[in-house]
Predict the structure.
Amino acid sequence: MQLFPCPFCGPRDETEFHYGGDAGNVRPDGTEVPTERWAEYLYLRTNPKGTAREVWVHMTCSEFFVMERDTVTHKVLSSTALGGEHAA
Amino acid sequence: MRNLAEKWSIAPDWQAAVIEAPGLTIRTVIGLNQVLVSGDLDAWARVSGLSGDGVGAFGMARGDRYAARLARDRLLAVSKAPFAVAAGWHAEGFAVTAISAGLHVFEIEGTAIDAFVARGTTLDPRQASASASAALSFAGISAIVYRHEDRLRIHVDRGLAAYLWTWMEAAAGNLSAG
Amino acid sequence: MTASRLATSGGFIDRSRPIRFSFDGKTVHGFAGDTIASALLANDVAIVGRSFKYHRPRGIWGAGVEEPNALVDIGGSTPPTPNTRATTEPARDGLEAKSVNASQSALADRNAFMDRFSRFIPAAFYYKTFMWPDWHMFEPRIRAMAGLGKVDKDWTSAGSADQINHHCDVLVVGAGPAGLAAARLAAAAGQSVVLVDDQVRPGGSLGHRDSEVDGKPAKNWVDETVAGLAAAGHLILPSTTAFGIYDHNLVGLNQRHPDGRQDTLWRVRPRHIVLATGAIERPLPFANNDLPGIMSADAALSYLKRHAVLVGRRIVVATNNDSAYEVSEAISQAGAEVTLVDIRREGMPATLANVRLLKGRSLASASGKLRVDGVTLDDGTRLDADCVLVSGGWTPTIHLFGQAKGKLAWSEARAAFLPGDPVDGISVAGAAAGTVSLKDVFASSAKAVASLGHTKAAAPRSSGPEATAGISPAWPMPGSKGRIWIDYQNDVTAKDVELAARENFVSVEHLKRYTTLGMATDQGKTSNLPGLALMAGITGRTVPEVGTTTYRPPFTPVPLASFAGARVGELMAPVRRLPLENVHRGDGAVFQEYGGWLRPAYYGNGDAERSIQDEARRARQSVALFDGSTLGKIEVIGPQAGEFVDFLCYNTMSTLKPGRCRYGFMLSENGVVFDDGVLVRLDEHRFVVSCSSSHVAAVHARLEEWRQDRFGRGAVYIHNATSDMATLTVSGPNARKLLEALDLGTSLDDADLPHMAVSHGTYAGDEVRIARVSFTGDRSYEVSIRADRAEPLWAHMRKAGQVFDAVVIGLEALMILRAEKGFIVIGKDTDGTTLPHDLGVDGPRTKRKTEFVGRRSMFTEEASRDNRMQLVGLTVPQGEAPLATGAHGIERRDGKLKSLGFVTSSYQSPTLGRAVALGLIERGAARHGETIEIQHLGKVRKATIAAPCAFDPAGDRLHA
């Protein structure tokens, strides 16, 4: 059972969290966005082995944050709220 | 059509219901006023006269008016007397919604509180700075858990109060056996 | 006479408390403190089970968790549990133990003939043989003959297993000398300690190996240490197995209770873990090395010292290492005639008092029918024996270290894998780390806790003779004669490993799957290393080159009940409960689960279908009351609330005036309709999202996500107040009249409260919110009031309704009413491909100029296809039964049957007197009036495509 650091609440059990997608997958606005770009936004994921940057939500407090973690060792490298605050 | 009412325990009369085990008494606290407050919590503090911090997980709340912190910019204000603040948006920078009936409040008393908590959450209640937010997963559901005076208070979604009651009966049974 | 109980000694048993239990129906006498195994040995029960595949007789091998043979199903005075290890299970009065995989009894197994066919059924025999015509033809018989214990299917537990979360500074696994020393030192350094041990009594090898610690007998030191730790408030858990290390060093413990209570699961999150898990003695390879009466030398010593059981009278001890010498001396002193056969010529004393010592010799084979009667040495010498004790060396118990992804390092000197590179937060001490002498063991404990803080105590000191580590490997060799058992529990012989190698299953993971080596309840604790060493020998590789299989939890079997804990029965997947549930119960509601809520399906004890039809008909005639409390009430509050809901919704919402409502969709970014509902604007800065009952959590999450990710935290705030209010719906031609009788203190005139408007009133001093929205097509009012004050209002509504012949309806009748109107339920009348324009809502797609979730997906090639499935009504001729939900519309094209889509909702309408249905049909919107074929379970019917709304298409009844 992993411990994830919520930037506001601190370390909590992974069952309190929900995965929210790749970090940095910026939404392109507008109806003129090229098809390929929109498809990339919707569907294309890198699924890296090793360090990954992901958006997670701490469901009990609703905080969305970016967590950097190693997908092999499960070591958490950093945790930053979307507002910029870091986990202690 | 099978009547699934049979499958689920009937919620007790909350006024009278009590769970008792060695070192443990659990009851419902009826009649607390509760509001959700989000936004500029300092502004809320100035308007309400209540602290804008709120107690975190297993934090110690005292008195008839206090707050439990739920999130970075949200708290639950609790009071015996009704709040004199209107629901909705306040130009000072915070939002208020009444939730008095939406959150059911249980109160746990006795020497076995720590043992009881150990059944419900992986969070360590003895950690001095357990967590900034009192919102946590308890018995598998979202709950707001903190100490009030020498007791433990748990607020849960009203729709899940019957579930938590049955769960607490099972936990109390295990505590008695152990 | 062979094994027997001695008249004196036996540190663990209490001779003043005799107990009696049964094994395979026969009475067994023992004492409190016995395990099932020690009592069976004391009663000279040699055969305790039959092997998995060949049904060979098997006896007790060990004295701990590694036991491969002595598995028993227990019951009687204790809850029935299959495959319990007799070596760790305490003997209890009234317990009933049964050998596993034996037909009738272990002694007289009816399937013993299987062994005579053994050369025809080597590894993988089943895979190769029972393929034609179909494995499933053979499977039931094979499964009935193979396998282990039986689950008692009739037994149900009284309660649920307890689960406890625990936190500490240091968790010490194993209460042998290394663990006790580590716990003492950690405690002295001010750490909070949890000490777990899988035996009933702590002490580990100190319980049967002679030694002195800190100048006192080891037994006293153990008792003092345990008492000291307990007195200082540290947690000591005997009979508890640390079965797994999970992510970020969470450790799972399973605790067994002496009183027969269900096991307790502990989840311990320590800051640091000390693994003092000891080592397990290995067998030696020789023909027929599985005969009853052949056992671990260390186990024999343990039974002697702890339970005063002497395992034989004429005993051959075979070894390749130093540890068997102490065993030989002790059992000789206890009165047995002992011959010690050491594979090595050098090392250790040349003579041993009262022991016949044969150096440089090894066992070639054992003989005996149902139990061993002698051995033949490699030089052909025959020795009679009623018991053979073997020590093939020691395998450090590094399973937990391996589970924590610790790398192992091969030690030539120890002929074993030892813990390699350190793992964060874990240290290994004692025999698990490869230390042998007590001096080294204590030094390793001190090292393990050295990093945890300054300790005030010195490490314990041993005195007296120290154990030595000498060993000469004695691995099974390819091409050996006879049947040399590698894995007792799975009946894997050396020849099976050779067969696997011949067929190129040389990877250790393949070897395991192909031969079953290392599977089942013991997970190869005694067999893995000899098996992979043999594979190394066959393939010309070294042992570390072959490597080990992956270590995974659990270390020993854990009851599923422990993992389930309280999450059984109604606690497994809780449903939400209505504020008025008990009132509905009193009214005879029949409940079903809908979208995570327990809700009335219909009322009364009549026939379900007739009751539902009756409710739906009466609702149209006068007025219906319905509990709609589950509807979402998520508040969106803040300075940018309008802009925010515009982005989240398909329909423009910011143009809504305060006090008004609008129906709309939320889409996913791929354009698919995610939810529908009514948005209420209470004031300039405050909206209420009235989403579907089952989507509240998901809608709340997506509102928070866009708020934090796009708008910034100060723009808007989200409050889920769904549970705060009960929503009581009044619907039908007489709805307004009924509501007027309640005197809610607000005008219900259509001018003041038109359709899709909201007003506020009071009831008994509480504010009520009245929303005039309709899911039935009739004039409807949703009255929301504090959930804890809803009961009087509901009662008042029912009383006031009597003059109008009001009917209380459940969800099933509501489903009919909404289907008559063509109103959809997301996820039922839509699927994971449905776009808003498939439902006929095209306006925002073509007209909106501002951004919204899913917007770009409205204009993809996929979204613009002209053959999309679209929402339609489907009618069947008067008098015909409703179409089956899920039935497909079909069409023949080029001789092939093609699906046009399917029926999504279908009901008998009591008001229309005919069946009504909704469906998603290809190009449906342009095909109204067309008759198509609908196929269900091979039968084809005809239906005509129509507009979704079958009742009051002009909508007059909304205002009637």
User: Anything to note?
Assistant: Chain C touches chain B through 59 residues (CB under 8 Å).
